[in-house]
Specification:
Protein name: Ent-kaurene synthase
Distance between the termini: 92 Å
Number of helices: 48
Radius of gyration: 39 Å
Structural class: mainly alpha
CATH topology of one domain: Farnesyl Diphosphate Synthase
Membrane topology: Multi-pass membrane protein
CATH class of one domain: Mainly Alpha
GO molecular function: metal ion binding; signaling receptor activity
GO cellular component, one term: membrane
Mean pLDDT: 84
Number of strands: 4
Organism: Fusarium langsethiae
Strand order of the largest sheet: 1-2
Amino acid sequence: MDSNKQLATSLIDYCAEAVGNTHTFGRLTSSIYDSAWVAILRKPGTPGLLFPECYKYILDQQHEGSGWEKSPESEIDGIMCTLGGLLVLTTNSDIPQDGISAQDMATRIQHAAAFLSSKLQSWDVASCDHVGFEIIIPSMLERLEQKRLTFTFPGQARLAQLNQNKLAKIHPAVWSGKVQTTVTHSLEAFLGKADFSGLRDQRVCGGMGSSPSSTAAYLMSSPVWDDKAEEYLRKVLASRWPGELGGVPGMYPTTGFEVLWIASTLLEDGFHDTSLLRYGDILSIIQEFYDSLGGLASGFSKSSVPDADDTSKTIIMRNLLGVPTKADKLVETFEGKHHFFTYMMERHPSVTTNCNVLSALLVSPEPAKFIRQIEKCAKYLCTSWMQSDIPFQDKWNTSEFYPIMLLSQALCRLVNAWDKAVINLSEELLAGDISLVLFQVLMQTLQKQHENGSWGHIPSKEITAYAIIALGNLASLPFNTQLPGVIRQAIKNGRAFINSSGVTPDVEYVWIAKTNYSPLNICKAYQLAALETKFPKYSLGSSFSKLHNLTGQQLQKYTHMFSILPILNEFPLWRIEGSVTEAILFRGRLQASKLDMFDRSNLKGGEYLEFIAMTLACSNNLHGTFLKTDILFEMMKFILHVYQVDEYYEHVIGITYEQHLQEIQQLVENLLENQPLANGSSGHGINGTHLEPAARSKISENIISFTDTVLKVPAVQRAGSVDRDLLKHELRRCLLAHITQLKDSKRHCQSVKEGSEWKPPCGSYHEWARTVGSAHSCSPLSLAFFRCLVPQDLAGRHVSAEEQYLVQDLWVHLANKARMENDCHSVQRDRKEGNLNSLDFPEFNRVDGGVAQLTRIIDYEKRCLKLGFEALEEVVGAGQKHSQLKALKFYTFLLELYSNVYALKDISSGRKDGLSGVAFNPAEWRQDNKYILAGYRKLEADYLQVIKSLTFLHNETCNVYTHLIGAVLLPLFATTTLRTIYMAQYTGATRTDLIMLGIFFYSAESCLIFSTLYHLIGSHSHEVEKYWHRMDLLGIVVVTVGTFIPAIYYIFNCDPILQRIYWTMVVICGFSTAVLICIPKVRTLRWRKVRVGAYTALGASAFVPLLHGVHLYGLEYMLEYSGMKWFFVELFLYGGGCGIYAVRISCFPSARPFYVKEAISDRGVQFRIPERFAPGHFDIWLSSHQIFHVSIVCAMYVHTIALTQAFESCRTLEICRIQSVHRSTKL
């Protein structure tokens, strides 16, 4: 048995201890809050405290100079714990404690009160969902107020409202009835306000509501001491977790909860061997609960109040263990109008309860019988995930991944049931919301994994286990080809994190009751399940894939388009492909909406929809904002409407009603100000207008249609009045700016035709850019609309004048940047269509290079944005989740993405080479030179994907294939050449000749292979590129040395001493250069002069032997017998290739070495011919680097001819005699 199975067996054995002992079973971590109530309990007639060990526990748990808390990340946990601790200190002040003086106690109280006040000031009441907090905290604050400790805080009014709402639901009969309710779980909130004497019969196992704090409060108010309640508390104290002496858990017993959660978790994920694990004992416990509660279940005991959560788990367990169990009682008891309740008096429904209910319905014997309830649960879960005003969080667990895990389990189980024809689910729901939600859950889960393999705000093994189990289910979904490998790696990394030691706290307080706690054995079960769960969990047929019509060609097309944008270029390809897939899954929702506002008969084709969805999905995923689905959906519709209104103004009003722009402007102003329209009172404008009534009516209808789509969105109507007013203001500016733009464009075109001077309407470009120009771009309107969509409970709105000013200033710079970038990329289109462009302003006509001037202004706006964000982060706190900061950063990313797209559209529209790349500025380390604009490949961590780049066109294709083909052909050519050595006429050939020629061929082959691999694999990552860059440079050194050694051998064939001298020189120079290339320490600026010297020496080692040969034997001999005439051709090829590419120091293959930029000042010549004369036109073919590569291959061939000539001279002639003659003649 492996270790995981042994641990699983021990957990099941632990659960089996509850057999026949269900009333005294449970082991949770201690609760400071509940321990505090037990710590103040006194028994009448008995001196001192009933449980002094609890008092000591509370004193020991107080943090020095602070309050109490178990989970620092949870404000409510610190509040509840500190309220309990203060209650103890102020109530037990008459009980002396060793080592604690009255002054010490007063100091403790002072520190705790300050801590509590700080927590209350930052507490977001609206987002809290701890058990009973809305009735407990007001009661506790009242008690402390009686002790002269008063607290005020921003959320006090909201808390009071919640308190009133909760109390209004409690019927007076609760206090005298014999039927259990959840009120008994929080009796301490009613201490002194209600009579508990009628609740005696509602005890379970002697306690009240399975709550130690509630039981303590019951005992305090009981006129007759209840021994069974005291006995209950003593049992609770004895059940404490080891090492927490004096502490009591927040709930006891927890039989149903622990047994059901441990057993079901193991059974569903990896531990199915019923013979190995004692599931039979578990079944008997479940049966006991099920029978006692009439087909329902409770998490506490078989006599406690049943709930939908534990009932669902019971149905799941019984059916999985082969006991057919119907869900009729579950539906009858807990079904609501739109969802299922956990308890009948709960304030908010639970996401996870509805997940468990859905799973229970699906595993029941007749799931088709409950199709209506199944769809109800599915719709509620989808709504909870997508709707912006419903936070996707659970009331029982602080981690977002706990509901994500259960949501994935339930919805994947639903898809599988539909795929296997078990249920007949609506295909519209399945292909629409369910598919979209599942895919978003998958993408967000994958992207939220930390580098160490963990998940969670603070890396957590338990939370990591939730995510792995979720991925195991989500891996079943056949969405695209990239994700299965990503999921597999994510699960592998997550499991490695779980198996690691010492990386997380021993206890993680992520579960919620009245305070945070940890059911440690349940946590262990989840971790074991994560290590063993199967993935994919289900094998789905083709039916699910056919619902979405996701074609590989479609995904590849859009993925490639977005992957080559500068802002997205460094992201993994799977994240981009996933975002594209998500956008396509929005198709159903978008098509179901009424998107066309205008009569489109006069407008261009509206092919924006999927593209808009992709830009927002990419921004949301890749920026890591993870906005709710409904916010994305509303933004998609809004941006489409903006495109449509822009089209309408430009192609209808600007053409059909060109002569009535002033009248239409007045019409729009009146419509926006809700002024009545009256005809016939004046000679122009709206009254007495020459515009036909039908046209005026149609224009009015269209403008109102647009304003309604903006202002009547539910999220906008829920927004604050300040945000709504700002949106109306920007809407007015935008619509009027469109008319002003038409009028200005018309005047500008007229002045151009007439050759007259055009005067800017706003006096200067600066003024126009910040008013009409930015408003016409719709950027301020879009941001105002987006701001209304962001939920107010996401974080606080800006509250100070400084913060408000900074936010508004960022808006201005964002709008300016958006307009300027649009104009910069659309100059030709605007000229063609007669639209006023930034570059039409006189400021840009007075100097050369208007585009360059505008680009520098854009850079200035970017710097302003950077400074603005830094200032705003200082004000709101850089680490805080602030709605304005979050929204602005997302919107900035989105605008930058659109700017990249505009650049793609306008540059690539003129291309005719079929290239799917686009001009942009990649990371500096990837740039061949600044004139190569497009065709850069996407960085891809998968080597197989990198190699696949051999199959498509990019700007390294020619570089790769020139040397790849050369590397393939060279061995064949070398073999043929070497065979000539053994021909009869070369009787003087020796083994040394074979070695010399072999050295050249092997060094050339190494150079070509290294160069090929560098240019091919360089798109993997920066680290890989740097490694192969060094190998490429080593190839250069190797071929340099390998070229010179045989040449020296034949030049000085009759002078062995000179051979050895020059061989030594070449090898030393080559070795020194190789060292400088390979050792990181010497690649710094400190060693720059040394490197330049080594490179120079390596180059000189080629020319010195040649010049010495000319000096010794004369030029005639060197040309005729040593192959020097071919060396000149070789030099021309190398030099020509170097010249057009401007490799200043080293003219060798693969010439983009790191030393090129550092060897000579950047002011040196940079030829880069021909691309410097037409940037972007030689990206794929005939760039200088490619020409240089071809020249290298040709030079190697020429060098072979030179060596062959020298070899023939040495082996067919009396070369030493000839050398001697030429040498004497020279002398």
